Amino acid sequence: MHTKILQILFLFLTSSLFAQTFIFKGEIGKFESASAFTLTPSGYFFVSDVGKNEVTKLDTLNKVIQKIGGYGWGDSAFDEPSDIYATDLRVYVTDKNNNRIQVFDKDLNFLFFIKSNLNANEIEKFQYPTSCATSIQGDIYILDSENTRILKYNSSGNFLLEYGDFRSGDFTLENPIGIALSQDSKIFVLDNGFLNVFDQYGMGLIKINSNFDAVNINISYNNLTLNSLDSLYYQNLKMPISKFKNITPKNLPKGTKIVDSIILNQRLYILTESKILIFNIIN
C-alpha cells in the first residue's frame, strides 16, 4: 500500500484561536545560549543551555529552583545539552556530544543514563542524539542524528525498537532535528522541513510539508507548536489538520531569535537564547 504524502502549507491555528490576541506579560530567566525548554503540569520550566552546558529549573515567577551542569562527561555534566523533556517525576536531557540521554528526578538528582556502548548490538548503537521525549506509558524516544533514525526504549532504558531508517520507505528520515509526542503516543519528527508522524510501533502515518524553515517542535497536551528562527506556527491536535496559520505575535520584539515555544493554559511561552517571553492569550 502506497504511503499518502500530504503537502500542507503550515499556517497553523485552529478556529478557536483565530480571534485571539497575544498580550505581552513579561519575561523570565537569564541564559547564555538556551537550546530547548519544557514546562511540567505542576508549573516548572526546565531549560537546557548549550552556552553554559547547564540545565536550569525555575518557576513561572522567575524563581530559580535548581541548576546543574558544567562542561564534562561525568554524571550531571554536559557537552552540548541540545534538548530537554520533563514530566512531573523525571527530566530527560539530550547530552549530544557525550552520546547519551541523562535522566534525573524532578529535583535534578541524577538517576541513570542511556548510552550505547561497545558491547551493544549494532542496532542499539547511537551517536550525537539531538532530541528525546517520552510517552504517557513511559517509553523513551531518542533521535539518533548520526544514523538518522528513532530509537525506542522502555522506562528503565532497555532497547525496544528502531525506525525511520531506510526500511521505512516514504518515512525514511534524512536530516531529523527534533521529536515530540502527542497524548495518544504519536511521534512527530521534524525532518528537512517535513513533519513525519509515526505510531508507537514505528508505522508511518502521515508526512506533511511545512513549507518553511522549521527548526524546532514542541507539544504540550494537544498544543503543537513549530517555529523557524523568526516565526511561530500552531496546531490543535484535537482538530483535523486543515487550515493552519502563522501565530507569531505582532508585538514580538524586532530581531527576536525564536528557539522554542509552548502554548499551555491560555499562555504562549517563547524561548529565546537568553530568556523566556510570556504572552497572555486573550479572546
Write a structural description.
With 283 residues, the chain is mainly beta. The protein has one domain: Neuraminidase (6 Propeller). Helix content is 0%, strand content 47%. It contains no helices and 25 strands. The protein has strands at 5-6, 21-28, 34-39, 44-49, 54-59, 64-69, 81-86, 90-95, 100-105, 110-114, 129-134, 140-144, 149-153, 159-163, 176-181, 187-191, 194-198, 204-209, 216-220, 223-227, 232-236, 245-246, 260-264, 267-271, 276-282. The strands form 6 sheets. A 5-stranded mixed sheet has the order 1-18-17-16-15, with no helix packed on it. It has a 4-stranded antiparallel sheet with strand order 2-25-24-23, with no helix packed on it. A hairpin with a 5-residue loop joins strand 11 (129-134) and strand 12. The protein is globular and about 55 Å long. It starts with a strand and ends with a strand.
Low-confidence stretches: 1-18
CATH level 4 superfamily = TolB, C-terminal domain
Major sheet strand order: 1-18-17-16-15
- Count up the domains: 1
Mean pLDDT: 90
**What is the helix/strand order?**
EEEEEEEEEEEEEEEEEEEEEEEEE
**What multimeric state do the chains show?**
single chain
Structural class: mainly beta
Q: Total strand count, please?
A: 25
**Amount of helix:** under 10%
Rounded radius of gyration (Å) = 18 Å
Shape descriptor? globular
Q: Output the CATH class name.
A: Mainly Beta
Largest sheet, described in full?
5 strands, mixed
Short summary of the structure?
Helices cover about 0% and strands about 45% of the residues. The protein is an all-beta fold.
